[in-house]
Design goal:
Layout lengths: L10 E7 L4 E7 L3 E4 L8 E6 H8 L14 E4 L1 H8 L7
Parallel strand pairs: 1-4
Antiparallel strand pairs: 1-2, 2-3, 4-5
């Protein structure tokens, strides 16, 4: 949430398709956190194949060429684009 600049109060849904289909719901308060269910409709969302998500979060691929092709942006288009291009993280 912080790296992508998603403002406080927003609700994010990331839907993965394919072999590891899953839905991640995130609410952004003082920090972004995974939740079991959103407290309302998502304000921003992404839908993409799970293998692409794994490559993006690992920093192995740039999201830009996949926007509006393999990555479906939902809700606020500017925030969705920013989220898609800031998925990489390290532990």
């Amino acid at each position: 949430g912080r790296r992508a600049g998603i403002p406080e109060g927003h609700r994010v849904r990331i839907e993965l398709t394919g072999p590891a289909a899953r839905t991640y719901d995130v609410e952004v308060a003082d920090r972004a956190r995974l939740v079991d269910a959103l407290g309302g409709e998502p304000t921003v969302g992404l839908r993409m194949p799970s293998p692409l998500f794994l490559r993006l979060t690992a920093g192995r691929r740039d999201a830009t060429p996949h926007l509006d092709r393999d990555i479906e942006l939902q809700g606020d288009p500017e925030l969705a684009r920013r989220l898609a291009t800031h998925l990489a993280f390290t532990i």
